[in-house]
């Protein structure tokens, strides 16, 4: 049986939709509900490794960048848990990953709008009432049905494995998202190979490498690190470089033609796919320490090497065939296990594809067209909005999946729901100009500019 129509139904409760629910909490005029199939909030649980931190400052919590005085901020979380002074002397902007996960869980348990253990099975549009019909199933097997004027889709991404990593083998061949669950078993392997060159790969390598003792290395235990990239490079961490993760860059990027946007993001990998300086330093320093006197350090690194195939040997090991790109040569190596740190991809649910085929406008690639206000463009003339959280980066730029822009996006969404600018949008969020330079001009210059002459 339908209940009274909601104003907003959220599908998925990751950090972005959880942040939306948190910022909506003071607004009783907006009736909202967020549904998540997991029984509780969990964030990257397979990569909760000791010593790992967020790659963004703690201010990239669920609410602060839109509402610094919000009681669901990270600082208030610390205050409630009697950790403010400890954090004060911790002197780090980058908090432990485990603490961020605990903070989000703390927030989720204070929000009655968040319902866990309820999986959305279908979403359809009812043209007669211009509402979305959401059907869900609880872990108890019970079915529920809701109606909502608007949707907020926050289903996130899923681990992606290339074709070579999809073979069924008796030897461990796992995605890095499962690393914590497999770490103990991997530590018993004599040789483990990690494939990838991002932060997740580096963290897996460091965890495996730290576990090796000098005696194990002398007996032949080793970790191999392989990437098809040109090297093991750091992600962009300079202050001006980080301005690509601001509302200013997002606004500029959205003004670029869609096909050009796709082309641009192809060359921006190191802005967000690289390794932190501190992790690179830890790996290097440990190799240096363990190679004193010319000893085998127990870790080998190979860049420019793409995995082309993996097959199981008669001895239950894994034979990995590699092609060196610049040299155009191949070689095979063997390993007892493989960790594929090969990233994540969007896995849009079937009901979203059905919405695209009925009410949402798509581009030549079949992707929904997400506007600058984070709504998917509709082709049926109805007024209900479909907000897309963390759309592919060609929609809004490399900042789309960045936690630091979540609160800004959610404030933009809520302002639309309220029909007024309740949350203040930053007038300037970057020092640099991403588009054409803007400068002071006298009246004559302004006149010439209005006639189509760009003044520098």
From TrEMBL:
Keywords: FAD, Flavoprotein, Monooxygenase, NADP, Oxidoreductase. It is an enzyme of class 1 (oxidoreductase). InterPro entries: FAD/NAD-bd_sf (IPR036188), Histamin_N_OH (IPR031043), Lys/Orn_oxygenase (IPR025700). The keyword Flavoprotein applies. Pathway: Siderophore biosynthesis. One of its GO terms (molecular function) is L-lysine 6-monooxygenase (NADPH) activity. Its EC number is 1.14.13.59. Its cofactor is FAD. Belongs to the lysine N(6)-hydroxylase/L-ornithine N(5)-oxygenase family. This is L-lysine N6-monooxygenase. It comes from Halomonas elongata. The lineage of its organism: Bacteria, Pseudomonadati, Pseudomonadota, Gammaproteobacteria, Oceanospirillales. The gene is iucD.
